[in-house]
Every structure is written in structure tokens, then in C-alpha cells.
Amino acid sequence: MNLIEYFISCEIFKELLECVQYLHEYKDHFVSQIIHRDLKPDNILIAENAREGRFVRICDFGLAALHNYLNPNHTGGVGTVRYMAPEVRISHLKYTNKCDIYSLGMTTGNNLKHLEINGEITKMEIILDSMCEVMPYKRPDCSHAKLNFTEIENTYFSSFEELEFIGKGLYGYVCKVRNKSTNDIYAIKMIELTGLNYDKTQQLLNELGKLKQITSNYIIELNDLWLESKIIYIRMEYFAINLRDCIHQKQQESDRQPGHVMDVSEYFTSYHIFKNILECVQYLHELNPQIIHKNIKPENFLFYNKPGHKPGFKISDFYINCNMMKNSDDNSMIYTSPELLSECDNITFHTDIYSLGVIAQEIFDCKFEDDIK
């Protein structure tokens, strides 16, 4: 199992815990809880579309008995042996809701146990081992397992300190953060998966996983990515200045009125800037398979100037398929090609060329013609 599959499985496990917890905390005038007693993969259903933010449902709990803690006699020996707790197999023993914890641990453990990351045993394996303890009193209840699971899931808040809110874009939010252990500075993009079903979420994670392997001086590299509470977190290199800032600074330093002719120095500065961003987009278009950005704008070109490296621009946000993410961003509309606005099915690299043309007019301070507007 790779890391992407692991985090998807963790999300399913979390929803399963919540389902079982609901049964165990059920109360009315007659009973204090419901024990499922036959949890297994066949009784776990995955919805194609999220309902109230949830994909996982459990079924066949209606065939189980309503239990009262004061009742010493339960129906033993009933269920699927492979997932059955030891105390249920032995019919004369009394069992509690901890039998469901055992079954849930066995069901989930088939996918998640014995997974090592960087050679270390994961916290998830420790939780699953405790759920499958032979002695019921050693197993956690749902709330305790969920609490431990939350510690796994909160990688962002436990590992990073937010230093600055950078901005909101077409696909989510970006923050400047500090790694609490190393003090390294990064940018982390948070993409909310609202409206995406399970298949599209998995497709997006798979695409991001492949793009994480790409390294180049022309792109902002993906250092890491993970899924937490229906949000994808992408950790990237941090650069403070983007192309929009450079255009503004260039205009200020030239002491030229907008619309007036550039001098030779400003023209060649503009030329080198535009040549650099052309090379960034060309790099994406010449990859195999080709990447079409579809969201090119000045904010997505970041300026880097590190010791030992030639100063220049890197392109970001090339890794999100905008056919999946339909969030609107009015600030980007001016750079969007007509075919992309009309949701044409046949989108080619020419849509990025259109966006570059609009940016070129800003870099060289050209006026828009009425028909282009």
C-alpha cells in the first residue's frame, strides 16, 4: 500500500468508527445501546456520492439484538467466524460492545496492519493491535480509538505553525508555515474536496502522487502531500515574491507613466521575464504525458533567488485538474481562454498560450483591444 492509499483507508476507518460509535451510544426508553455483533466487509457500504459529508454506512445491524447491560445472556456463536471476537465464539460467555471493536479491528486490519512508513511502525497499527486484543477489557471503545486516530490525522496542526495567510486561489487556500521540528519554512496549499466523490478524490490523489516525482528548476516542487478530514494538504517550496509583485515593482522603478513607451532597460527586463515564464510553461507542455496548466496567471509564477542558483521564476498550481475542481475565481477570469470558459471538451495546450498572451500585455504594458476584451 502506498501513502495515498493509506490515507484514503484512514478516512474510511474514521467514518467506520463513527458509525459503530453511533450504534453503541444509541439510547431510548427500552435499551441503552445496539451491539452489531456481525461487523465484516460485506456489511460496510461505500456511497458513490457523499451524503452530509459521509461516504461510509453500515448495514445489517437491524438483525442484531438490542442489549441491556443488566441482561447477562446474549446470543453467542452467531456471526462470521473470521471476524468474530473470542468471547462471542464461546456461547456461554457474556460479551459487550467490545466484540464490535474486535470485529472492526479485524476488518480494517486486513488493509492497514503491518504498514511501515520510513521503516517505522505506524500509530495506526498500534491502534488496530489494541482493538484485536483477546481480552475485551484491553480493547478501546470507539471514542478512545477515535481520539487516538485524531492524533494521527492532525499532521498539519501538530507538525506545522502557521506564520502567514498567503491567499485564496481557484483550488483552495495557501499558508506560509514553519516546521516545528526543523524550523524550515514551507508553503502549504489546502484543497477542500467538497463535491468530489470517492473515485474523483482517488484520481486526484493518484495524479498528485505522480507529479510529486517531478523535479525541475521550472516548477514549484511538491515536497509532500496528505489527506486529513476531506482536505488535501500539499507542502511546497516557499517563495515570497510572485510575478504580479515583479510587474508592480518594475513599473515603480521605471518612473514611467502607464501606457508610455518603455526605455531600453525596462524593455529588456520585461523581455527576460517573459522569456523565463515561457520556458516554465514550455517545460510542462513537453512533459510526457503533457501537462496543460489551465490556470495560468501572474500569481502562479514565483520568483526564487537562492545562493548557488540562477535567479528566475518557477510555475506553481500546475498539478490540479480544473475539470475536477469547479470553484470559481473571478480574479482569474481575464486570463482564462474562451474555450475553457465555454467548458469545451477538447482543451489543448493553446489554452495556456492564450493566458500567456494576456500576461505578456501586462508585462509589456500593452493596451487591450476592444475585441480582445
From TrEMBL:
Residues 1-166, 160-373 form the Protein kinase domain. GO terms for cellular component: cytoplasm; nucleus. SMART domains: S_TKc. GO terms for molecular function: ATP binding; protein kinase activity. Keywords: ATP-binding, Kinase, Nucleotide-binding, Transferase. It comes from the Eukaryota. PROSITE patterns: PROTEIN_KINASE_ATP (PS00107), PROTEIN_KINASE_DOM (PS50011). Pfam families: Pkinase. ATP binds at K189. PANTHER family: EUKARYOTIC TRANSLATION INITIATION FACTOR 2-ALPHA KINASE EIF2-ALPHA KINASE -RELATED. This is Protein kinase domain-containing protein.
